[in-house]
Amino acid sequence: MFVAQAFARDQGHRLRLAPYHLGAMKTGSGVETEVKILGGDAETLRQRLRGAGARLEQPRNLETNDVYDDEARSLTGAGKLLRLRNGRELTTKLPVEGPYKSRRETTVEVGEGPVEELLGSLGLRVIWRYEKWREGWDLDGLWVTLDDLPFVGTVLEVEGDAERIEPALAALGLREALRSHGSYHDLYDQFAAEHGLPPGDMTFAAEAAWRAARPLGRPSQG
Asked: Does residue 211 contact residue 195 with C-beta atoms inside 8 Å?
């Protein structure tokens, strides 16, 4: 179930508020509350989702994400995020206080035009790129994503009303699972520090190059 889309026009280029799943943020508030579950086998997690009555709403697809900031990294320093996904979906995230990772999120989907050039004209540039294979599930109104990331591996993310997250994790048998409230950049930085990687992008090509130079395979997450 998705909310209606809003439209605006600027110099002939259509900006469309991307549809979002009602479980992915508090209805009408634009606040995204989430928790990440780390590790585990993807197919086992799919079976748990099906067993809890979840429905696959977004088939598995590859996402490319570019994070933008200015030269002084002022957005990063303020805990803000500006992300361009797949070249068209532009998102800002602003921090919100709470027991879980919560951010006020605004997303627009740019129908056409040179988005990267527009951002560059504002003094913004790509400071980090990351990829992931993602599929999305509806779990009784909560939005659950199952991601496969370079270096980090499998991550299950539950988004929705804060008071419903713990019961959902219990229904999936994941209340005692390893969890994180950090961003994917945080998880990559942790992996890089533990394995002696220099700063870089979290892409599948970068992981393949690292594994080729150090043929140990993807480390187990338990």
From this structure: no
